[in-house]
Amino acid sequence: xxxxxxxxxxxxxxxxxxxxxxxxxxxxxxxxxxxxxxxxxxxxxxxxxxxxxxxxxxxxxxxxxxxxxxxxxxxxxxxxxxxxxxxxxxxxxxxxxxxxxxxxxxxxxxxxxxxxxxxxxxxxxxxxxxxxxxxxxxxxxxxxxxxxxxxxxxxxxxxxxxxxxxxxxxxxxxxxxxxxxxxxxxxxxxxxxxxxxxxxxxxxxxxxxxxxxxxxxxxxxxxxxxxxxxxxxxxxxxxxxxxxxxxxxxxxxxxxxxxxxxxxxxxxxxxxxxxxxxxxxxxxxxxxxxxxxxxxxxxxxxxxxxxxxxxxxxxxxxxxxxxxxxxxxxxxxxxxxxxxxxxxxxxxxxxxxxxxxxxxxxxxxxxxxxxxxxxxxxxxxxxxxxxxxxxxxxxxxxx
Amino acid sequence: xxxxxxxxxxxxxxxxxxxxxxxxxxxxxxxxxxxxxxxxxxxxxxxxxxxxxxxxxxxxxxxxxxxxxxxxxxxxxxxxxxxxxxxxxxxxxxxxxxxxxxxxxxxxxxxxxxxxxxxxxxxxxxxxxxxxxxxxxxxxxxxxxxxxxxxxxxxxxxxxxxxxxxxxxxxxxxxxxxxxxxxxxxxxxxxxxxxxxxxxxxxxxxxxxxxxxxxxxxxxxxxxxxxxxxxxxxxxxxxxxxxxxxxxxxxxxxxxxxxxxxxxxxxxxxxxxxxxxxxxxxxxxxxxxxxxxxxxxxxxxxxxxxxxxxxxxxxxxxxxxxxxxxxxxxxxxxxxxxxxxxxxxxxxxxxxxxxxxxxxxxxxxxxxxxxxxxxxxxxxxxxxxxxxxxxxxxxxxxx
Amino acid sequence: xxxxxxxxxxxxxxxxxxxxxxxxxxxxxxxxxxxxxxxxxxxxxxxxxxxxxxxxxxxxxxxxxxxxxxxxxxxxxxxxxxxxxxxxxxxxxxxxxxxxxxxxxxxxxxxxxxxxxxxxxxxxxxxxxxxxxxxxxxxxxxxxxxxxxxxxxxxxxxxxxxxxxxxxxxxxxxxxxxxxxxxxxxxxxxxxxxxxxxxxxxxxxxxxxxxxxxxxxxxxxxxxxxxxxxxxxxxxxxxxxxxxxxxxxxxxxxxxxxxxxxxxxxxxxxxxxxxxxxxxxxxxxxxxxxxxxxxxxxxxxxxxxxxxxxxxxxxxxxxxxxxxxxxxxxxxxxxxxxxxxxxxxxxxxxxxxxxxxxxxxxxxxxxxxxxxxxxxxxxxxxxxxxxxxxxxxxxxxxx
Lengths: 399, 399, 399
What we know:
The structure is a homotrimer.
Chain A: H1 3-12, E1 14-17, E2 19-22, H2 25-49, E3 54-56, E4 60-68, E5 70-72, H3 88-91, E6 94-96, H4 97-100, E7 109-127, E8 135-136, E9 153-161, E10 170-178, E11 201-210, E12 215-218, H5 226-231, E13 244-246, H6 247-253, H7 258-262, E14 266-277, E15 288-293, E16 306-314, E17 317-339, H8 341-369, H9 373-380, E18 381-384
Helix pairs in contact in A: 2-8, 8-9
Transmembrane segments (chains A, B, C): 29-49
Keywords (chains A, B, C): ATP-binding, Disulfide bond, Ion channel, Ion transport, Ligand-gated ion channel, Membrane, Nucleotide-binding, Transmembrane, Transmembrane helix, Transport
């Protein structure tokens, strides 16, 4: 043969695998059952359930939150407060969103105050908070210029009477923001001052973009009319697509009561899930909302959630707020796919590869477990030794 | 044979597959074409286009934004304003970054005010905003202590004249922050008070870390000199690597005009894309910037973006700002890879698996479609029955 | 044969591949070595190291940060300050968390001020900052109403003396917030005013949820008792599970010193890594903390991190703060898996597919490199021509 003929043969002869057809229906059935299981997994799970015939897009998402509502604490009486003499006037007023949402805007999150401790402070000298390291019996226990890590200022060196109704110990005097905060909620018992914020509503505007398909979607459907959107309130059963949520409903959906979370604050997760099949009409692509309280209500350290912020009136005067409240964090989880032949081919190709597993199992049965294994082995395997001679065991095989 | 010999044979004999070489050039060609398609996909798409020969790293990224600029509204005249009698003085001043960027720092985001409604408020009694549930004809329509959800305070029980230039209805009086906000932009028409912020610049400092390769990168190239960086402004064509952006340019790049977004606010996405091949010199690893307006300019509910924040002068006096503006959110999308033999081997291995698909197709042709299918079947398949006898159909096959 | 018999045969005959057993120990050994490498990769790397026998869950995570501490700058003397005449009184006071953490709450992040420039401002007329475009020799160099982009207000048209100790040039007068900020840290040298914040502590509460397994975890172990948690401070060696961190320790763990970062600010990444095997007891599922300074300490443009915020005392009076400080961003990286037969089967199946690579390599050796290649080729390959005749080269093969 010429070289070109040889190359042509090597390139364009079709080399297929020699097959031994074993007419044993039991093994055939086993083979088909395993194949069916694998095919069921590939077709049912990978292709259909996981939508393996689709190409999926990455996504970008942004959520803005607009809280609305007003709550009045004018009705509280002196006997409702723990310290009726202190600042009950400061606690008796009208609170609106600008007072209670701090900071006024956060990316994909919002905080609403549910309980408050207000302290009007000036830079001055006053007794330190009563705590382990601040007590003293005489001035010699206090050191001028010393600052306790958990204290509130720099010690003056004087020992003065503690500013606490039940304590009669001495504490070191400090320079700093005075008076120091008296760390107890304004209301008696485990009540929240602003439990009325459960009636506040929040409008969540969630924008999502699937760059691969050049699609932009919102959680506010175009088909909903303006007046519906202005008056509706989300309800998982009756109004599942309304983007306005009552805060109390959100907390209830987490399995907690608003009053149990309001006194000490907490952290709530709002998960917006987009599970979209862009082979169907886009109006079926609507988000689902899930709510869960993510902080532990039985934590031993730092239960709930609070932080301090201040209104500064001038360089030496401020109103300090210890704000307990609920931090809502909005997370988006999305999956949007469209029919695409490439992932379909890949998934089918990988699936065909998996089918080889059926042969591996059946071959094992045929060669090692079957009563006719010697016969099948003779037909399936041809033995060749180096040097061309055949092994004895193989003589009977060759026909 | 001894047992050890048998074990040795079982372990170290090489079992290869018997091949039937079919000298049919058409099937051979079909086989090669399918193989070439699969190889093209593996080599061209998986290995080269998707860089299947590389190991990719996860990444952490942080972006900080520093806005610069100052805008003057001193030139506005009384006739420019909707309510010239109200607070035009408050609107005529110099606005700098500290006035307009609220909150002053946000993680991977920044907000710039473009339009404002300013209301000086004190805690007092005043007429409620004119809305559906607040109108009244006599004091009996108002209930002492009632708080409307979308209202601004707690009703006193009195019915008073509405504080609205065109309305002559009565509304319930409230206790709360007074006067209530008159919800209309300061300027006549659909103009934004602070349209000058389109000349503001923002310096985006984007830090990215690829932990697998222990690499840290920034969007500010070391090779750029200091004076260039201080004076440059990003332009996709002439200055694509300058990290300083004019806000008006960003809005224009989204396909909108600044004036159309400034009056009611909006949400803009800045996507920084790092597509890095660490097998090349690191100086080729530079980010790309993309901008898109993600809120819907034709939304029916809550179009644009605004929120309220206040400056508190003392416990009973505040300046309420309804701030319309643009929230910029910075997202980072990165892909950084380096040559690694393991993913290369895996991808080639999986690719070889896919090649089996070519054989499946050609075998189907050979056994069921080809005119010589009976001959090829005889040579390809050997039939074996239980009990060792061969089926009739197979007699002619065995040589 | 009847049709039903034919269909039954086609469906339930078992077709296995004909194997040629080559009794050559060298090739057998090569085959086994390659198989062992692939098996080692699958079992060792995919199944065991990467836990390929487990199903992994997505996760949601939220982190809150609570900073504690107080720092005093009362000890600074006039000679410590750059401008002793200016506002040393404003710099000499007690600073607490409410003064230094701005904004008071950020999602998965917190900022702590380490250095400050304070400027008391009113809306008035004053000389512009001394910079390239603001200098003038006479009023004709200034234009009434002109606003420089990097300037601080709207020019009045007058040329006045610059307000800078070393400069004797004229600058244009502006209307705006006056006086303009003098951009130099308060302390002499490269010192930070508030270097004492390195003793502040931050309590990081990290909540993580694995929805697939309906598991919620915290970084605060239930087994730790309350008093331990209140007094402990994180240390990678002695207290690796304490959720309270000293800021100075965090900076030291990044390989920098607090004093080097405090003067100009910086950006620090806190990565919380959960690597959990839910087949073991959940108490082994504890997070690891890693810290890295992500901004470049040698950057040419905008080194460090600062921003401006203000306290507004009334409409025409404010205190402007240029706050240098450290922005801490908390990122969570999690991996939680549980035994699941499906991923195990998939990984084993794909692994078996990879084993085919061993055969490809050995077949190449057998057919093209081995000294007995002609013999092996005769036994391995059967040649069939169209029309049923066999090629010459194949005559000796058929037995």
